[in-house]
Amino acid sequence: MMTVKFVLYTALGILLASCTAKTAEQESAAQMPTQENVAKLTPGQIRNAGIVTALPQVRPVASVLRLNGKIDVPPQNMVSISAPLGGYLKSTNLLPGMHVQKGQVLAVLEDQQYIQLQQDYLAGTARIKYLETEYDRQRSLNASKSVSDKTYQQAEADFLAQQVAVSALAEKLRLAGINPKQISVDRISRSVNIYSPISGYVSRVNVNIGKYLAPTEVLFDLINPSDIHLALKVFEKDLDKIRKGQQVMAFTNARPERKLACEVILVGKDLSRERTAEVHCHFQKYEPDLLPGTFMNAELALESRHATVLPEEAIVSFEGKEYIFVPGKDGFTMTGAQTGNSENGMTEILSPTGLQGTLCVTKGAYSLLMFLKNRSDQ
C-alpha cells in the first residue's frame, strides 16, 4: 500500500513540474519579440530606407491645457447708434459688414422739431441782448436810487433766466447734432446728421428710409474690432493652473495650422452652472479677418517638466496605436508606446519607461512599418 502511494505522489509531482516548466516557457516566449513585430533588414536595405538611430533625449516639456471659446468684443468697443431727439430717417447707405470711419455721416434725419429748436434758440439769443441792456440800465438807475431795488432785481432775474434758457437750447442743439454757432436767420435746417463715434464696421441695421425713429430706438450697431479678445471656457478643476500673463496659442477649426498668439489678461471669478469660468485673452497682433462670435480652440502652456522625448518621426501609428522601433541583434523590434505632449518637433514618451541609454530609430520608422506590413500581407 505504501508503494502505491509513493508511486502516485511521484507521478503527481512530475506532472506539476512539467506544467510549471511549460508555463514558464510560455511567459518567456511572450516576453520575447515575435517574428511579426521584428523587421530584419540587410545593411543595404537599412541604407536605402534612410534608417537612423539615436538615444532618446531628456528635455523640459511644457504641459498643455486644451481649451475652447469664442472671440468677444469689450463693451467699450460696441456702440448702439440712436437719435436722441427722434425723427424721420431721410437717407442712409449702410449695410451690415460695411466699414465706417470715426466722424463719418451714418444717416440723415429730419423733423419739424429741429426747425422749432433752432427758432427758439435764435429768438432766445435775440431776447437775451435786450434783457442784458435792460439789466445794465436798471442797475445804473438803482445805483442813483432812481428805481427801487425790486425793479432792479427783477431785471437781473429775467436776464439770468434767459441766459439759462439759451444755454439749455444750445445743449439740445448739440445733442441733436447741430452746432449752435453755425445757425442763423438765413441758415435754419430741417435735417440733422448722425455721425459715427468710432471706426469699425456695421454689425446691424435696424431701420429703413422714411421710418419714424423714437429716441429709444437703435438705428445701427457698430463694432470696433481693433481690441477684440478671446473668451475661453475653463473648468473649475483647471482654474488654479491659469495665471495672468500666460501665453496662449489660438486657432480655428478651419485653419488649425494658423496659430495666433494671445496673452491671458483676466481670469474670471464666477462659475457657471456647468462649473466653468471665463478666461479672457488679448491677441498680440490684430487680425482683421477675426470676427466676433467666431469659435476658436486654444492651447495654454503650463509649467514645464523634464521628460524623455523622441523626434515626432520616430513614432508611427498603426491600427489606432502608436509604436517605436528599437534595434537589436535580431532586427528592429516594433514596440508599443504611449506618448504625451509634443513641442518643437519632439514628443514625450510616457511608456515604455527606462528608455534612457536605449537606441531607438529616429528616422525611417515608417519604412520599417511598411516592411512589416508588406511581409504580413504576403
Automatic annotation (TrEMBL):
GO terms for cellular component: cell envelope; membrane. The keyword RNA-binding does not apply. It holds the Pfam family BSH_CzcB. Residues 1-23 form the signal peptide. One of its GO terms (molecular function) is transmembrane transporter activity. It comes from the Bacteria. GO terms for biological process: copper ion export; plasma membrane copper ion transport. Transmembrane segments: none annotated. Residues 78-222 form the CzcB-like barrel-sandwich hybrid domain. The keyword Signal applies. Keywords: Signal, Transport. Belongs to the membrane fusion protein (MFP) (TC 8.A.1) family. This is Membrane fusion protein, cobalt-zinc-cadmium efflux system. It comes from Dyadobacter soli.
